[in-house]
Please model this.
Amino acid sequence: MDKQDWDNAKRLGEKALRKLPSLSYSPFEEHLLYCHLGFACFSLAEYARSLDAFYKAYLTASKHNLEQVRVAYASFKMGLNFLVMMHINQALSQFHKVEQYCQKLTSYTFPMNKEMYVSTLINLAYCYLYKNDLGKAGQIIEQKLSPSLLSPSGEIYFMDYMHIKGEYLMSIKDYRQARQSFQISLKACEQADFPRGILEAKIHLAAIDLLENQLDSAFRILPDIMKEALCLKLNNLACEAGFLLCKCYSLKGLSRKASSIENRIKPVLSKLDTIWLYEKTREFDRLYQQLQGKTKHESRFIPQILVQTLDDRYENSVNKYTIVGNSPSMQEIYHLIEKISPTDMPVLIQGETGTGKELIANAIHNNSLRINKSYLPFNCGVLPETLVESTLFGHAKGAFTGAIEDKKGYIELASGGTLFIDEISNMSPSMQQKLLRVMEEKLLWRVGGQKPIPVDTRFVFASNQTIEQMVKQKLFREDLFYRINTIIINLPPLRDRGDDIPILAQHFLRKCSLSRKEIPERSEVPTNVGADISPSALALFTAYPWPGNIRELENEIKRICALYPDVNVIEESMLSNPIRSYINMNQSAIKSDSPLKELRNEIEKSIIIEVLKKNNGNITKAACQLNSDRSTLSKKIKQLKITISNVTKR
Model:
């Protein structure tokens, strides 16, 4: 089938989905429809749409207790999409489910045949290879993927096996064996008339030539690879070959020819997927660093054109002014948001208080197909349980005293859009069960209602605790966790994003200054619109552990802007006392050779004790000053073994 055929298949599948409410069909037929649509989208490289379709196929099979093989098949396809999108942890989770299912079989059942099991193992090996877990990758390649398992599995799986084996051998720097594996893969692809496989094998052989300083050999094959890939519209392979060819020219000192190749692939590069671009920066970084040790040429580790393309994507992103940070962990989150936003899959965001969970939820909605529909935030921690149910689910007239009319809840109000439920860890087990029912059935029962109401709400959840740990401690329903854990975003605390602190501080300074500029009653523009931060103040900002995370940093900047509206440079003396004094408090108490975790705990303990003293042991007031909530601070006090009675002694 060509692209036109797949486009038609996708169009017909989407048309059938729109007509589902008026049709009579079985759960199995609905499951098959989602699978066919997912396959069409995958063939068109629309991976987010494909992931969404297979996720719905998975839900349909699970909800209606279809054969377990249908659940396993949907999991396999979800894992494949996650892998292509380079969301490795979630891909691993899905492939492990499929592996466990296959290992329990006494005989294979369509569509999960032996070839699918082989493919599952190969994809697991790719996952571990991308995670740089070479031990587990090698175990799969050298032990689980035995010749007896591979021999009846067909040409395509043998080619895949030789390819992953070659990549593994390159990773452990066994270039001779790696070359042999790719040569075998190349011959198999040529016999099977598989152009993509042929070009991929040739690109890896050229990379090995570079690593073994055989530049003339690489020169001979790379231009032809690039030309053929462009003719076949395999843009990613054309760019890979172009990057390697640029490196060959730069190593030969032919900078003009290198620039010519960059200009040639630049228009093609702009069409490629952001995740692919990001992963290639890491891949070429590793490759070029290996080359650096083998040549006398001083050269950058990552192709500049690749970096520039990613920078341009960020400059044009809708998240540019809402999510700030250049650290690797945040870059991964940016690219994940781009991929999962167009789907209807639930998302779980985990991170300490103040790390920006609501900003991430907002970004997911703003990048989704639901952007023109409602976005509603709801915090489980601010209402008593008696009000949570009616606020979330709504109530019917007369359901309880004071219910004088029907009222829609947040879930119903957000139907068609996105509902962000913050601090899901604070939701009671009974509420969790009711929420699970809504997510599974897409039907809502108002409190006191007589009939269900259909809803189409996308759920995004957040927690400042690790839900998986709560499940193990029987503090959170396991069935709800497995319903919402398909996509998990773990936000790092600010102390682990040291490089982002100066960027965030400048961002909040501009934001604060501009908001003051827009106040109509002010006749003059504040002079700190262009204010800067002195090196000594910035050093303290960077060193301070920020227990309240980004929220605390933003509030610190707001405080400074309010107290010093006309200042041009923020000095160390303008910072609040906990930030200015924490080094002095801890220099005498902490040994320079203490482990990092111990140092961090001591610093946090000193800061919390100081704030508690100022508030006479009042945890609520101290939490407010530290830009945290009372429950989080109480847990931290217990963890650090701080005794309130000792703190308040005069």
